[in-house]
Design the sequence.
């Protein structure tokens, strides 16, 4: 792993300081492509964030970002052979890390027999080409690694289409060759080449495939729109789980719904949205959606390609922002999730902050989170143990605005067994009295259900 921290750090380390290389013993290889890896790490301050947001104190420092990138490598099935850290005042336009560091990495690759060098940074086509020419192995940047993880975890046809589209859109500008200089299609002196090159053929095939994938995803989007239209004909609101990758969204989804979707400590284990119905304390039913996790500097190609999936977030009435309470850089994770929500125009939606994994905290920290939960600031839960689920459902009940809960006094004939069963199933019964052949009830429930029972409303109400 090669780490790079660009610019003066807020923690006081000089930009010219170079950390010593930290070699680690190789464990058993998990996959042929990632069995021996040198990881090139660059700090988060090296390029402006999306949306021209200025760097803040909530962002990860070099070591924290390196730890997160190490988790990405593990999720891809890789084994880290060595780590190298570089600090520079500014990126090198040719190689990002400078020629001296490139020579050092080449030596590390030779000594460890690594088959891959990973950079925690997006490389320009020129930088990628120069690094591959200087190093005796393959070079991947951060976006390529994330795309590989997505490709490994895509199970449904929709997920595979979205990943392939993102991969091709990332690959297209990085094809190298003579290009137009070899084409027969040019005009003027010196522009008539011997024929179409392999580069031009590859570009044409990739563009054709991208167009085909977009048509397929448009069809997926139309199907999803039809499904949402059918759901919207019945007043059942949707609640979407959003959050940083590996925050525990799928575990929370399983805890609330009783489903058995894949829950894994690896990043991006969930790519395809899942929908399940849950019942709130008010007896209202909502649809809970589990979505793909976000990450720092989420590649824009992924946000675009997965827009059909992320439309579930855009259509949701309430967002449950699941955060890892045990993370040491939770503020940065929250900031990154909000940036993606802003890109999806969802930042203004009602949102509940769900602090997950409190079972990993000490008792003093947990008590502080409980006090914040009681104050209504956040909801502290443990999706693994089930702690805090009642408080979360109660908070969700209070935020929902569609099909509001109202109180009603009903007088129902005892022979109307279907009506009484519907009341028991869909409302909270506060009192029940028997009066001859009638049952007098005081209930609270969804306005839609109370409206269907208007003929049984008591006159004194």
Sequence:
């Amino acid at each position: 792993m090669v780490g790079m921290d660009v610019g003066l750090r807020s923690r006081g380390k000089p930009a010219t300081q170079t950390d010593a290389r930290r070699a680690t013993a190789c464990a058993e290889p998990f996959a042929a492509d990632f069995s021996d890896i040198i990881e090139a790490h660059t700090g988060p301050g090296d390029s402006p964030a999306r949306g021209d947001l200025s760097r803040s104190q909530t962002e990860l420092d070099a070591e924290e970002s390196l730890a997160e990138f190490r988790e990405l490598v593990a999720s891809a099935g890789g084994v880290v052979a060595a780590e190298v850290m570089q600090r520079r005042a500014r990126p090198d336009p040719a190689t990002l890390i400078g020629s001296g560091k490139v020579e050092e990495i080449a030596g590390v690759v030779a000594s460890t027999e690594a088959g891959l060098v990973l950079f925690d940074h997006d490389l320009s086509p020129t930088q990628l080409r120069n690094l591959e020419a200087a190093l005796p192995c393959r070079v991947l940047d951060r976006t390529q690694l994330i795309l590989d993880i997505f490709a490994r975890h895509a199970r449904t046809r929709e997920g595979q289409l979205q990943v392939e589209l993102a991969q091709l859109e990332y690959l297209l500008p990085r094809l190298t060759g003579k290009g137009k200089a070899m084409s027969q299609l040019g005009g003027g002196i010196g522009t008539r080449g011997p024929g179409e090159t392999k580069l031009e053929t590859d570009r044409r095939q990739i563009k054709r495939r991208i167009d085909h994938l977009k048509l397929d995803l448009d069809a997926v989007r139309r199907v999803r729109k039809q499904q949402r239209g059918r759901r919207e004909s019945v007043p059942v609101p949707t609640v979407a789980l959003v959050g940083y990758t590996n925050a525990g969204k799928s575990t929370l989804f399983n805890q609330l719904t009783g489903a058995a979707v894949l829950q894994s400590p690896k990043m991006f284990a969930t790519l395809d949205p899942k929908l399940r119905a849950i019942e709130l304390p008010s007896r209202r039913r909502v649809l809970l959606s589990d979505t793909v996790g976000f990450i720092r500097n989420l590649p824009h190609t992924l946000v675009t390609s997965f827009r059909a999936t992320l439309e579930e977030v855009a259509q949701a009435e309430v967002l449950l922002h699941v955060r890892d309470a045990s993370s040491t850089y939770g503020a940065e994770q929250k900031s990154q999730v909000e940036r993606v929500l802003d890109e999806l125009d969802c930042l203004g939606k009602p949102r509940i902050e769900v602090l997950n994994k409190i079972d990993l905290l000490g008792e003093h920290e947990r008590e502080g989170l409980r006090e914040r939960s009681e104050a209504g600031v956040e909801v502290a839960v443990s999706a693994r143990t089930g702690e805090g689920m009642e408080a979360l459902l109660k908070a969700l009940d209070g935020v929902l605005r569609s099909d509001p809960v109202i109180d009603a006094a009903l007088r129902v004939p005892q022979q109307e067994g279907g009506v009484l069963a519907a009341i028991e199933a869909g409302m909270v019964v506060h009192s029940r009295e028997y009066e001859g052949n009638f049952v007098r009830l005081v209930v609270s429930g969804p306005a839609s259900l109370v409206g269907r029972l208007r003929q049984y409303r008591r006159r004194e109400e």
About this structure: The chain has four domains: 2-140, 154-227, 235-399, 405-456. The CA atoms of residues 48 and 54 lie 7 Å apart.
